[in-house]
Amino acid sequence: MKDLATLSNGFKSGRIQLKEVDGKIRKQSQILSKRVKNGCNWIKAKTKLNRLYQRKKNIVIDFLHKTTTKIVREFDEIYVGNVNSQLGLKNKYLARTTTDQHWFEFKRQLEYKSDWYDKHFMVVDEKYTSKICSNCEYVTESLELNIRQWICPECKMHHDRDINAACNILTVGTTGLAFSKINTLVGGLGIHDLHRSW
Ligand SMILES: [Zn+2]
190 CA distance to ligand 1 centroid (A)? Predict the structure, then answer.
């Protein structure tokens, strides 16, 4: 599991800590399943379970609000990659994963809070941004998802996978360009093109 968000300055948001509450939910669900439905003890167990679900929801909401407020207050220009939302669109008949939902909500909050604080917010095409060295634009052949760190064979720079991708997203955002398959930036990417499927 990786951080929900990584910024180009190296800041990592951390994960939403749900392990403890998830454990309690699992345990309480088991207790509930052993009770006679609609009996007194069943109702008590059900109420407790509902409270745990509410607590989980609050942890998520709290984390997302704190993180997005911090980012929007601190930075004037915010560029976010579009990959996760594209995955969501492609699989619109399937349920989104929890992480997808959190990411979607995270971006939604960044967008409307940027508006409140009068900051510049933009979703950019993050295609190839993981595989390109942000220092010299060398393109690695393949970068498996489990590889979190890599060294550019060309300029020997040591990369954290997510920070490198975030730096490239910043480049794409500030230049208004996108990476093509080869290691050059290509033009002609307007804001309306950003939401196309690929
Ligand atoms: Zn390099």
Answer: 28
Strands 185-186 and 178-179, sheet pairing: antiparallel
What separation in Å is there between the alpha carbon of 132 and the centre of ligand 1? Answer: 8
Confidence category of residue 167, pLDDT binned at 50, 70, 90? very high
The answer to whether residues 24 and 54 touch, using CB atoms and an 8 Å cutoff, is no
pTM of the model: 0.79
Inform me whether the pLDDT recorded for 84 exceeds 70.
no
Residues 6+ apart with CB under 8 A from 158: 149, 150, 151
How far does the centroid of ligand 1 lie from the alpha carbon of residue 1, in Å? 26
What is the spatial distance between Cα 111 and Cα 113, in angstroms, rounded to a whole number? 6
The CA-atom distances, in angstroms, between 95 and each of 53, 89, 90, 116 are 19, 11, 11, 31
Centre of ligand 1 from the C-alpha of residue 192, in Å: 31
